[in-house]
Amino acid sequence: MTTTATKPATTPAPTPAAVPACPAALSPASPAAIGPCGAISPALAALKARNPKARPEQLLPDVPLSRIPRHVAIIMDGNGRWAKARGFPRAFGHRNGAKAVREIIEQCLQMGVEVLTLYSFSLENWKRPSDEVDGLMALYLDYMRGERDHMMRENIRFVQIGRREGLPPEVLALGDEVTALTARNTALTLCLAVNYGSRAEITDAVRTLTARCLTEGRDPATISEDDITSLLATGRAGLPDPDLLIRTAGEMRVSNFLLWQISYAEIYVTPTLWPDFGGAELAAAIRDFAARERRFGGLAPA
Known about the structure:
globular; alpha/beta; six-stranded parallel beta sheet; 6 strands
């Protein structure tokens, strides 16, 4: 008796699950503007091309790229109180405040902020004791000498706003040198307001515009807001208006800082003293900014 071998039944191979196609690009409104397949939005790609160090998708993954402020301005307040609380003279607070400046510059680079303006020395600060003023000017020189090579390595452009009259010649010369040296850098613009007062800035712009009208026979009725903006120090430097104004140390005033330019800026006040203001505090300010609805005088969408 012979037997016939039976061919074992075969189980059909499972149909592979469809793999979703990776999007070519994401909307800049998407949180972090980066997808699971590594696709990034055109806005994030442009940011990384200008500033390869930027990584907002890692530092602020919950904040849409379109809601990261382009220009952050900071009133750095609290150095003296910080030093006094530790039993040290005010100069100690200013030196530690300078350390905070470098950290915030680094954080702005990584978070994708385009412009950082710091209120360093106001026209009114000349009223302080002469030894403190001299110390601040010496600190400026030390900081700029120590940071100019760092600015070049990090691709940081430096500009300075404020009246030149009254500043020591060595301060003017070093500021001009670093401005020229870094003029082509693109990752971040660092703007220091030194010997600055907004009312004086506006007055100077009006004087210049008045002189032009008289020389050119121009009708003053044709003067526009853009004409004035272009003659402000920030306009001459090609800076956009601030989106976010931060003030440390809890004071509820703007202290004659960028009065024209902050017309529609969001204002964030923190009790943190400037030497203690770091990356976590900056991230909190940006998250607060991102959660706000900016209407510029209009109404919210229905």
